[in-house]
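Entry: DhaL domain-containing protein
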Amino acid sequence: MQKINSALLKDMFLGGANNLINNKAYVDKLNVFPVPDGDTGTNMSLTLKSAVDEINKNTCSTLKELGDSITKGSLMGARGNSGVILSQILRGFSKAIETKDELDIRDFALSLDSAKKVAYKAVIKPVEGTILTVIRETADYARDVYANYDNFSVFFDDLLKKANEVLQKTPELLKELKNAGVVDSGGQGLIFFIEGMVKTFKGEELKIHDDNSKSSEKLFEEDIHILDENPQFGYCTEFMLNTVKLEPNDLKEKIEHMGNSLIVVGSDNIIKVHIHSNNPGKVLEIAGEFGELDRIKIENMRLEFKERLEQNKEARKHSDNFEEIGKSQKAFSIISVSVGKGLNDIMKDFGVDYIIEGGQTMNPSTNDFLNAIKKINQNDIFIFPNNSNIIMAANQAKELSEKNIKVIPTKNIPQCIQALISMNTFMSFDENETLMSEAIPNVKSGQVTFAVRDTVSNGFDIKKGDFIGLSEKEILSCEKDANTATINLIKSMIDENSEIVSIFYGEDIKQDKADLFKEELQYEFPDLEIEFYYGGQPIYQYLVSIE
């Protein structure tokens, strides 16, 4: 009977990752709502890319070593719900193979069963019609039929056929998918990954397409800076080193005293280095002794910090109606996810200590949260994810950190601001958790953006380019212009208890246009208090908060 050893499984994993990366744009488009924020394919690709980087750092000569690298890399790189669930699927599979020297068909089937169990255990309220359904029914099928096979190729063909059948059923299990006319994006991403593994097993070489290679490299090279104090080390330094004289860990030991935020990874005699240092020239000099330097990039972070301060001053001109909160020293720290110059500044004004740039289409990974946590001296830390697709990564970081972390499950910016308003810096950490969690339901949240495809949803015949208003995962308005879509969204959201409507306008909205729209809203809703703030967020023209 055929067997799969560590070398072959490694190649299969890399082939699966490459196949998903090549198809991530397609997966991104499988979004329930026709809005420009589909990011499932990107999140799953970045999760696998992190696992690939970890594999390339180690020898992985045994199945246990390979599984450990896959588990660590995917766990640290997990982004978004789909990425976190994928990391748990891989963790369950890796756990099952750690005592094996080789895998036969039975071993592979039972490893899939372990993957299913770990993934389901990681999700508090599993939803059928998602990636979980695809892994569950595929794993159950493998467990039930493996004894009928003595040939991996035939087994894999039938397994992939079953997975695709399950995927096609997902719209029948989840109303939102059926209404949008799409299959589940996470399930499709998982099938692309399995398909790549099967093709590699059969001898097909899967490489990342040139266009995806460039985008993948760009995503890998992005430095997600935490917006905190004036940086201790002033220069963000990145470069590639072509060398046969030393391994990545050897170079890491030689330069780690030169700064922080150090990343040293490599394969095929190429080492990639990222470090924040006050002496980038010395770092390059040390590395240059062992080979040729390439793709050198040095950025002055202190200059960026000063520029950001000036931008925040400008942003405050548009948000000075917010009441000042107490400036007393907190006994805890707050990390918040945000994107947009104005929103970042508002967060700071309301007591947030560290901001991680991110949100729709740019979900921070588990490792991004851990890096932020490490930067904080205090032990008690609140995290505000501000997006339902980021909460799982934040909770995963909480479990990995030794500090006392509490994740306030905010799904959007208005919920975060409402929770921050309720904060009392003179009360305890636990008391503030209760205060902020209880404040979240007191605000209604909505967003206005544009449709990226034709569809029918909630009775609306939506055309590409239309502006749509969403609240609580439901489309409540659809119009040809953003202002009318916002007005109708507000009409659908308000009730007799509504008093205040706060609007955060995005990066595409000029201040004079926002001022005119505020007057229009005041006329349209004379009994409500209308407040406008510069948010500067991408994708969404307006964020709406109703209290």
